[in-house]
Amino acid sequence: MQYRRLGSSGLQLSALSFGAWVTFGSQIGRSEARELVAAAWDHGVNFFDNAEGYANGAAEQVMGDVIADLRLPRDGYCISSKVFFGAAAEPAPTQRGLSRKHVRDACDAALKRLRVEHLDLYFCHRPDPDTPVAETVWAMDTLIRQGKVLYWGTSEWPAALIREAAQIARTHHLHGPTMEQPEYNLLRRERVELEYAPLYAELGLGTTIWSPLASGLLTGKYADGVPARSRLAQPGMEWLQGSVLGEGDARLARACRFTALASELGVAPAPLAIAWCLTNPHVSSVLLGASRVSQLLQNFEALTLLARFDESVWRRVEAATA
Ligand SMILES: NC(=O)c1ccc[n+]([C@@H]2O[C@H](COP(=O)([O-])OP(=O)(O)OC[C@H]3O[C@@H](n4cnc5c(N)ncnc54)[C@H](OP(=O)(O)O)[C@@H]3O)[C@@H](O)[C@H]2O)c1
């Protein structure tokens, strides 16, 4: 495993980390979840990602149980949660968003479900147009001073809002955002490469990027339709089909050109797509998702490909998916 600093902070996260979205508490059972966390840990993963909204809190519960069961040393791994969407099936106004009340309630609930005394990373899962940014910055700072959170950050916030939060923190001597969690893959590059570009030097922002395989599209598994056991076939995931497969054939065609190039290079597409994410030095950690251990093991090969291929290969990969 390779370890990278989370922006300009002193926290070193594994370059490949592991998240619970769709799978934990929903698509897979507890024993599969346990095997996945154990395999990730055995391969040097030290960051496990979660959110209050994943399976309405069930993902956090399963992850907390499994990590406790595996007896992972608390000082050897980092765990995250995210606040915004709420954990209730139909959240009341006080059970969602980024108000001081919900930020505190959601943190306390995540600590219980994950069975830990602090969250290493805590994300504002989306911007909240109904809460002043200053209220959220103060609420996050309070959690850090209480020892319930170590680093706070954002997920899919516009650059201007991240800058505003950082400015408020600076003015009032509060802890500002350390990291952002954006989608980043060969089919979605703009935000990480262009919009956030000034923030890396300006704020020392780190990134823990999600969906490196575009929910599996870059493995080539959706080239001939939606396979029965795949993410897009899961009940309740119909909404995801539109954004993953896209309107028309453009995304699918780009994914097909990518898998054709992977086959020409003689490598599996999944680790190639993940390794490409790691070529960006502003990526602190690539969050992997997996529904079975064999996928995770294949995805860890990304580190070998990263060392093996040079700039000319990465330019071909980018040209194929342009
Ligand atoms: N902050 C946010 O808003 C946000 C949003 C999304 C995700 N995230 C985080 O980022 C993590 C990773 O995102 P993601 O799960 O979307 O990542 P991803 O790598 O794009 O998709 C993972 C899925 O692709 C399939 N897959 C993975 N490896 C494969 C392989 N080698 N061969 C074939 N299929 C493979 C599996 O689905 P199937 O086997 O079911 O097809 C797996 O669950 C999440 O768990 C979550 O922690 C955050």
UniProtKB/TrEMBL annotation:
Keywords: NADP, Oxidoreductase
SUPFAM superfamilies per UniProt: NAD(P)-linked oxidoreductase (SSF51430)
InterPro entries tied to this protein: K_chnl_volt-dep_bsu_KCNAB-rel (IPR005399), NAD(P)_OxRdtase_dom_sf (IPR036812), NADP_OxRdtase_dom (IPR023210)
Superkingdom assignment: Bacteria
Gene3D superfamilies named in the record: NADP-dependent oxidoreductase domain (3.20.20.100)
Pfam families noted in UniProt: Aldo_ket_red (PF00248)
PANTHER family given in the database record: HYPERKINETIC, ISOFORM M
Family (UniProt): Belongs to the shaker potassium channel beta subunit family.
Protein name (Swiss-Prot/TrEMBL): Aldo/keto reductase
Biological source species: Luteimonas terrae
